[in-house]
Predict the structure.
Amino acid sequence: MYEFLGITLVLAMLLTVNAVATAAAAGVWHLLKRLFMNCSARTMAELLFAMRIGPPAIALVWIAAFMIPSYLVYEPYHTDEFVSKKLGTLAAISAVGIACAIWRGVRSWWATRSLLKSWLTNSTRIEIEGLTVPAYRMVHKFPIIAVVGTFRPRLFVAEHVLASLTQDELAAALAHEYGHMAAHDNLKRSLLRASRAALLIIPCGRSLDRAWAEAAEAAADEHAAQKSSDVALNLASALVRIAKLIPTQERPVMPSSSLRPFSCTPASRSYSRRAASSINGASTSSIRAPRGRWRTAC
Ligand SMILES: [Zn+2]
């Protein structure tokens, strides 16, 4: 009973602290997000990531540093305490959530591995000047430019994208991808997905996930556009060209650990917003781009 009670308490506490802290973080975000409007997109993305990952991290640290040692020291081995229905239910939900997170992580890794294998088989290695990661050209109905892989990133570009973009537009699009790689967005996306699965049916934190995804895209745009006003304009131009290549009524199959600036959203709304934001930034970045400009891409 001693070990069973301890495990039950740990599971219940993990879910409770994670859910309550995540709900609190989401509430704080909704209340204070207007205050962050003047932050850069990168700052906003990092803030959102911290607010989303902070709660489960705090729960794990608190349990490991305080709860387990206290239980081992103060709880008598031959305890008379028993697991109540409420505690048991919480612990069961928590255990299923952890199992779901592990399952989703394994399934996601396997699906990514399979699709990556398929893409590598059907693509051709290419050299792109200035690019420091392996790049591949492939035939795909969607206008894909995607960085795949968390620790060994590879860049895949659809052939019709290469044919459609000018050299400068392609360079601007790649600068956007470097923004994602510099921020380790693939790794962050995987952690967020696992964290969401661990909360199971408890819906708190999803608004933070969506806000982070938008901020991460805006931050990658910002990373590219801050190089110069020309890069900003070329990125806007690339977004418009790519948007025109997106087939309607279909969704692409993408590796879960990929970043897909130009293929994740079939609707053109996000592209037009991001293109407008790039042009907006370009008009001022020749002097000095205000850090808050890029927020409008969210
Ligand atoms: Zn992107």
In short: Residues 2-297 form one domain. The first strand starts at residue 123 and ends at 126.
